[in-house]
Specification:
This protein is α+β, with helices and mostly antiparallel strands and 199 residues long. Helices cover 34% and strands 31% of the residues. The strands form three sheets. The protein has a four-stranded mixed sheet, with helices on one face. The protein has a four-stranded mixed sheet with strand order 5-6-10-7. β5 and β6 form a beta hairpin. α1 runs parallel beside α4 and α2 runs parallel beside α3. The chain is globular, with a radius of gyration of 16 Å. It starts with 7 loop residues before the first strand and ends in a 16-residue tail after the last helix.
Length: 199
């Protein structure tokens, strides 16, 4: 459901594995209210929200007694769905963005095209397969589902780094800033930013 005033959407998703309620405001102030059951994901989503100047609320219960996979994946699905719905017909947006973010020794780059053509490219090799109890392979799952459900082209590149936490943190900060830039309304853009006339 999209609110009439502002680019805001919310979604509820319930399966045998997860029960998620998520609301997302594209034009927020960096406020997050996160209950995912996955502490590292809470941390990353908080960074994403703050650096993108979004408002994000997540209330999720999942089968984390098994592992974090279903919860992380389904939150990515829900976030993508709300982003797509909140943007509507995408009139006036900048559409593209490319952002580099350093985090100490690590450097990440996120490139987005809010194109209505879902595609995901991921170039990251981590020194460790875990950050605490969080599996680094779930970063791919989250980002892929976000790209798919928001129907955007998303390229993520970690150029270098040796601390896995720093590398992933740089990704989420860059992701927030790139989506913020790409979804910014540019008064020079008439209609949608495409020669096709539709996105």
């Amino acid at each position: 459901m999209t609110e009439q005033n502002g680019r805001v959407a919310e979604v509820a998703r319930k399966t045998n594995e997860t029960d998620i309620k998520l609301s997302f405001n594209v034009d927020g102030t960096g406020i997050s209210n996160l209950e995912t059951g996955v502490p590292f994901l809470n941390h990353m989503l908080d960074l994403f929200t703050k650096h993108g100047q979004f408002d994000l609320k997540v209330d999720a219960q999942g089968d984390i007694d098994i592992d974090d996979h279903h919860t992380v994946e389904d939150i990515g699905i829900c976030l993508g769905q709300t982003l797509r719905e909140a943007l509507g017909d995408k009139r006036g947006i900048k559409r593209y963005a490319s952002v580099f973010v350093p985090m100490d020794e690590a450097l990440a780059q996120v490139i987005v095209d809010v194109s209505n053509r879902p595609h995901f490219e991921y170039r990251a090799e981590y020194p460790s397969q875990q950050v605490g109890s969080f599996s680094t392979e779930l970063v791919h799952e989250f980002l892929w589902k976000l790209a798919l459900e928001s129907r955007m082209t998303l390229h993520v590149i970690v150029h270098y780094g040796h601390n896995t936490h720093h590398m992933i943190e740089a990704i989420f900060k860059a992701l927030g800033r790139a989506i913020d830039e790409a979804t910014t309304i540019d008064p020079r853009v008439q209609g949608v930013p495409s020669t096709k006339g539709v996105l």
